[in-house]
Fold these 2 entries.
Entry 1:
Amino acid sequence: MQEIIVIRLGERIIRDYRVNTHLGLVARALGCKELIFQGSEYKELRESVEKVNEHWGQGLKVRFSESIYGEAKKLKAKGFCIIHLTMYGKQITEKVKEIRKNKKICIILGGEKVPREYYELADYNISVANQPHSEIAALAIVLHEIFEGKELATKFKKGKIKIEPCEKGKKVVSK
Amino acid sequence: MQEIIVIRLGERIIRDYRVNTHLGLVARALGCKELIFQGSEYKELRESVEKVNEHWGQGLKVRFSESIYGEAKKLKAKGFCIIHLTMYGKQITEKVKEIRKNKKICIILGGEKVPREYYELADYNISVANQPHSEIAALAIVLHEIFEGKELATKFKKGKIKIEPCEKGKKVVSK
């Protein structure tokens, strides 16, 4: 599977706390390696993901950066293919075959006012449906397309518990 | 394409306002017909979706119901296949071929404490990755799997503007 790092633009980390928590859950559950938020360290958000890792198995690393454009440039220099998710971009289904060939991919999640430089830095400006959207859902579908569904079978190392899928009800077992 | 109605359980409509707004955007952008929230009418939430419909084209209908289990039962009686999304269920990839055969599908989005009766009512209890997840992302992936990606090309009727996808930058045109 490809190594994927997600960069989340936007300085409203606290105001967007719930959306950011969802992004952490998605990036982890769907097999990303790292999620970098813009801004200074926000302990509660990092710890919410670490707590899930501790219980459910080692997955995502979360960190914060004051120089988020610098992070994206550094990843590009290291050979990461840069995907910028924007409702104005080309459909993921049209470009995913090319994108999938890259072993290292950085996905940038924008917002309403993304500076022009990100559109330029990106190897691909990619949309999911060219409609107003949820960045949480857009990230999920793009990951699902890149990994071709294989991410749903990710094995999480360590952790204390896991689910045994069942037709009705709930079954959680210790690892 | 299948007719899909989404039911959102949970009485914290205002506290979960941002998550619910995301659910509205996803259900609309990915071609659902209706989204029913549990509880009494919350005008701001309904209007936020209607505003998107007005600008970007007719899509999702939003309504609220005080008797949400009754809504699910009514849909089942009308022949809808009931899918309950839960982290404890069977993987979507394992069941999607069967699910896809149904022309009318109701997707129930739960939360932390879903009453047992929903597990029983459901034709399928379905998970996305059997890991703690975002219900926004889980809904997106399940819709994408059921529609086989065709939902990304949905044509929205009426509306005032649309996007012309481009490699770099933004292009919005009047309809």
Entry 2:
Amino acid sequence: MLDESGSKISPRTISRLPVYWRYLKELDDFGIERISSRELAGRIGSTPSQLRQDLNQFGHFGQHGYGYPVEELLSSISQILGLNRTRKMIIVGMGNLGMAIASYENFGRRNIKLAALFDVDPERIGTVVSDVQIQHADEMPKFLEENQIDIGCVSTPPEVAQEAVTTMEHGGVLGIWNFAPVKLQTKLPVEHLHLGDSLLELLYRIGRREDK
Amino acid sequence: MLDESGSKISPRTISRLPVYWRYLKELDDFGIERISSRELAGRIGSTPSQLRQDLNQFGHFGQHGYGYPVEELLSSISQILGLNRTRKMIIVGMGNLGMAIASYENFGRRNIKLAALFDVDPERIGTVVSDVQIQHADEMPKFLEENQIDIGCVSTPPEVAQEAVTTMEHGGVLGIWNFAPVKLQTKLPVEHLHLGDSLLELLYRIGRREDK
């Protein structure tokens, strides 16, 4: 029942799957075996009916009155999200943001392995972050030729982000995780994390409250 | 026609407004006065019909065949997003992520003023970032008593994020911009930026491609 067609799961549901995954992972770590739809929905700020609607899109879980089996549900969501295999990631741009990303503790939980770090600043090259040494960005094409990399993370200044992405795409990277506030030309899937957009949404919500 | 009721604009539209704002701001900076719905939609990866549907929710812009007036549209969106007034922000947690946020160049464009930075690490206290000196977090309650702060940015380790938010809420902060991977108890609006969730969405999309 797992998402065979590729068209069953709605984009809104997909954006909620990482949140479900996070809470189920916590429950599983604590050894909790079952959770009611009401309780799980409450934890993630959703409603039991939305939760059921989401989960019904990729399988039949839970029996009325018995709740969801945590481990089984976690395993299904992990599989949909592709967490059952290790993915290799490189980061280009080791300023404060790149350093913060490279130091992020939760990659291991998500089966992500940091494979290489790149920058152009001579003062940064050679520094070791999370057991990986920063190399010069000129080394990237050769590195990609010799290593199959899944995720290319871009935390460069915006004006060089496109160049980094082009190199990554040519080098066989499968997807781009982009922190640079710039639109990228690429055929690869791109996930943007745009600080400014997130801040504007907060400003909007603050303003709405003041109007009331 | 501007969003008087507070219920006219859908959440999906709101999440797209920051993107519209960014592209319109660029066009305006370049002195472009009009843009067709097709072109604007293309730039933001949307369709002309969705664009029209979004913009019709807060005003009547554009005439068939004449396109949208850039400055007027930008000004309306700025007003809806609350960008017509300056907002003061503080950041708690000046590790790599806090440093990256404090160094973000685009706050000025969004009328955000960095008012104070806090940490507990003696080695960081006293350091100046973007013209603001890092203070000890113990100073935060007093600072909030003396200054009206709009946005509290949390980039602390997860285990102290709640404490920071509680202090901010008591100190009269209006909204929380949260980078800590933890659910917060607060009555304030919270905008989360969760690195792990974003990465999982990318993993899902990479997996989908491989399946094809």
